[in-house]
DNA sequence: ATTTTGACTACTG
DNA sequence: ACAGTAGCCAAAA
């Protein structure tokens, strides 16, 4: 894998604001990763100091349930085991350009 | 070198 | 809502 892509993924995840979430596909596209699975791999191996709990599936479900209480702690209102993507999905264009 | 697996996504039934 | 299938890329066995 490319170190550059790896770093871009970490960077993309790092700039997801608290109280918002992004899908793996979003991060992949934002970071220029080949595919969403690569994002998950990076988070698992090098995401220990990143807000990986803000990265959820496109349908609002999460890969690891323990991120739900954690997201709630960041201010998200999660009625059940699913996140309201329509409301909490982070829009990278609305935040800041990216760079880097 | 080939196969399996994975913190994925989308489509179909 | 849930199970199966396909496409996808990289690391690990």
Quick structural summary:
The protein is mainly alpha-helical.
Structural description of this entry:
The protein has helices spanning 3-14, 24-31, 36-46, 67-73, 85-88, 92-95, and strands at residues 22-23, 55-56. Strands 1-2 form a two-stranded parallel ribbon. The protein is globular and about 40 Å long. Helix 1 (3-14) packs across helix 2 and helix 2 crosses helix 3. The protein has a single domain (3-87), classed as Orthogonal Bundle (Arc Repressor Mutant, subunit A). It has 100 residues and is mostly helical. The longest helix has 12 residues, at 3-14. The chain binds a DNA duplex (13 and 13 nucleotides) through helix 2, helix 3 and strand 2.
Question: How is this fold's topology laid out?
Answer:
Elements (H helix, E strand, L loop, with lengths): L2 H12 L7 E2 H8 L4 H11 L8 E2 L10 H7 L11 H4 L3 H4 L5
Helix pairs in contact: 1-2, 2-3
The chain binds a DNA duplex (13 and 13 nucleotides) through α2, α3 and β2.
Oligomer: single chain
How do the strands of the widest beta sheet line up side by side? 1-2
Given the C-alpha coordinates, what overall shape results? globular
Average pLDDT level: 87
Could you name the key traits of this structure?
globular; DNA-binding; 6 helices; two-stranded parallel ribbon; Arc Repressor Mutant, subunit A; 46% helix; single chain; 100 residues; 2 strands; mainly alpha
